[in-house]
């Protein structure tokens, strides 16, 4: 995750509290999505950015995950994400991001 | 109005192994934050030699020696594959070694900012003397060279940027101002790299297409750098500076910027200028970037690969009046991502692909080849960024499914038939749409395909001025043959119009 985005996530959690922040990922690759999820839960694995060594444990979802999909208007979802859902390796992304969430997310919900 | 045509192209790569370490931002950043890192220590072992870079299949594709179809025959990964009998000179251009390129930086420098060591100068003079087309009037600009002590002093005490070859200091780029950061040695170095690689692309364009440089009337430069001083940081004008060195004596020009999308913007502008009869021949040209060298080097080394981002790229196209032969640029089938388009991938692809097709009453499958961001997947996949061209083809195909022009089961066939493997280095604007223009021209001329869509996309957020995405597209198509413009409409059409009017009149009379 680029350094600027790490800073924005860190600032948002400081301002609103970790329990009030959800991070949504749109990355097209499972590996990159997993790295972003890891960054906002266990800390920056590359130890380069503001989240290096910071374990925020935030709720983090990829937009193709059912938890997010079911929470939004299906028409809007179809218009904004329908095509990408057809294109991406959805199962691989879900497995990767869910794995990170199960391991590092602080909130059990 | 008659459409403009693509009359020729030139594509160049420059192998710049020392510039990876000294000028690539991934490496320079690492030197600042973690100067003793394992990455920096291990890097030299992962640098490829010139021969390896020449025989690397994607590079041979870039300069036109093997076709995209032939590249596909090489099983991925490609870094351990070789094109047998590979030549540094290609059908569309060439791959230049670093020492000759450093010499070229000196040649194109008009302000005596580049200083090269005497022995090195002598050596390069000889090498460029053996170059297959470099002319003497350019080579003499190398002059005699400097004592190494003076160069060392400039680098150590006067803020000059060192020029290295095989790990040795062989020259420097001096700063042009004491406090203006826009004229610092670092900025001037990057600008001279863009200029020199742009000049090399323009020279190859002339050489490979038998072009008379005097016939070029306008130049559009479309790289990602900015030249100017503290009072006009991006004042320009790379275009004219390249034109001066390439010998476009009768041309003026200007720079077009738009991140990676700029080359396609520039193609559309050039086509429009020619079509509107403002200029007869317009050259679109761009040099490459040293900042992006080794951008994904950490991932490449982690996975035991060579650092594959070891070449600076450049290209040039000439767009001219309709000759009845070369492929036309359909300015009536232009796609554009507007301010109001939105940023979802669906909206982006619709605006660039299906909106222009709708104007021409065409289906997604009516375009034979799509040239998208043709980034080499050998570079991007190990870095976790996936196969960029394939992702684009999937999106275009998926849009076809949503529009019911394709069955979902036909998606893979669509990618196979209408897509290509990527072969261009990850140099921002260099892989964006334009790498296929040379092949598209040939494939259309040889009746292998009827048309191709060139798509350029750009991430504007990097400049922090807007979060909007950007992109444009244009269709290249087989020339239907010369259009007689003076008549405007053909005699046949006039006969039909008169007949229609008579019929109308007759039916009117009958009613009365």
Topology:
The complex is a heterodimer of chains A (109) and B (512).
Chain A: H1 3-16, E1 22-25, H2 30-39, E2 59-62, H3 66-69, H4 74-87, H5 90-104
Chain B: E1 5-15, H1 17-23, H2 25-33, H3 38-42, H4 50-55, H5 57-62, H6 68-73, E2 93-96, H7 98-108, E3 114-116, H8 118-129, H9 136-139, H10 148-157, E4 161-165, E5 168-173, H11 185-209, E6 218-221, H12 238-246, E7 252-255, H13 262-275, E8 281-286, H14 297-302, E9 311-320, E10 328-336, H15 345-359, E11 369-371, H16 377-380, H17 388-402, H18 411-418, H19 437-445, E12 451-459, E13 469-477, H20 491-511
Description:
The complex is a heterodimer of chains A (109) and B (512). Chain A has 109 residues and is mainly alpha-helical. Chain A is 52% helix and 7% strand. Chain A contains 5 helices and 2 strands, in the order H-E-H-E-H-H-H. Chain A has helices at residues 3-16, 30-39, 66-69, 74-87, 90-104; strands at residues 22-25, 59-62. With 512 residues, chain B is of the alpha/beta class. Chain B has one domain (5-477): Peroxisomal Thiolase, Chain A, domain 1. In chain B, the strands form 3 sheets. In chain B, strands 2-1-9-8-6-7 form a 6-stranded mixed beta sheet, sandwiched between helices. Chain B has a 4-stranded mixed beta sheet with strand order 10-13-12-11. A 3-stranded antiparallel beta sheet of chain B has the order 3-5-4, sandwiched between helices. The A-B interface holds A 28-29, 31-32, 35, 48, 79-84, 86-87 and B 33, 344-346, 349, 384-386, 391, 394-395, 398-399, 401-402, 408.
